[in-house]
Design brief:
globular, 4-stranded parallel β-sheet, Rossmann fold, 8 strands, single chain, alpha/beta, disordered N terminus, 41% helix
Length: 232
């Protein structure tokens, strides 16, 4: 649980550090993150059930707060889905906490079902809240949103993640009409770790410099509006 006067988001940062989910070194992660000095492994949360459940509750509390504003920052939705695989586990936990039905993309099953298909009950035209554990470039989110729209007639307007690495995904997804909301950014995590004396200034500065450099590179390569799997 959060310590006295500790914001909910910083509770999450502390738990991630305690779990060993934040590491420093030289990491190549997926298709877009090359030689990153910092790695966040949010899948470790699933090995700590109480923390995992708390993360799902934090997301649900954030959703309700953003929907209750005079100008809601999250549009109404009827279903929730997750980006495989870390996001899918989190979406399931969120569904159990919020009582909002879950749908998810099932991977191909060989000759029996050579194409992905959607599991769950839904109606074409419904809106889906997408959930992921961490976002870097936003490519997986765009691909999932496009698949749900093309193959199931479902709309995605909002995406909620636990951690945004801050490398330009928010601006990139906005370009295609998707609103990205994060519980924490990697920069906030780094600021917390530095303020608490858990990391030294060298790794902090290397990581911050990397984030800013990647964000600038992303902005320079942003396509024209309307190009891609979704249009604004």
């Amino acid at each position: 649980m959060p310590t006295p006067r500790e914001p909910e988001t910083l509770w999450l940062a502390r738990v991630l550090w305690d779990l060993g989910a934040i590491q420093f070194g030289d990491f190549t992660l997926g298709r877009t993150t090359l030689h990153s000095p910092v790695y966040v492994n949010l899948r470790l949360l699933s090995s700590h059930p109480r923390a995992f459940l708390r993360a799902a509750k934090v997301i649900w509390e954030m959703v309700r707060t953003l929907q209750s504003m005079a100008r809601p920052h999250i549009q109404p939705f009827q279903r929730v889905s997750g980006i495989p695989f870390g996001g899918l586990q989190l979406a399931l936990a969120f569904s159990l906490v919020s009582k909002i039905p879950l749908v998810f993309i099932h991977p191909p099953k060989g000759k029996e079902s050579p194409e992905p298909f959607l599991e769950g009950i839904y109606r074409p035209g419904e809106t889906v809240l997408l959930i992921d554990d961490l976002v870097t470039s936003g490519t997986n989110i765009l691909e999932t949103a496009a698949w749900l729209n093309i193959n199931a007639g479902l709309r995605v307007r909002d995406v909620l993640v636990l951690v945004d690495r801050g490398e330009g995904a928010k601006e990139h997804l906005r370009h295609y009409g998707l609103n990205l909301i994060s519980v924490l950014t990697l920069e906030q995590i780094l600021n917390y770790l530095m303020a608490e004396g858990k990391i030294d200034g060298t790794w902090y500065q290397k990581s911050i410099d990397y984030i800013y450099r990647r964000r600038k590179e992303k902005a320079l390569t942003e396509p024209e509006a309307g190009q891609g799997p979704l249009s604004p």
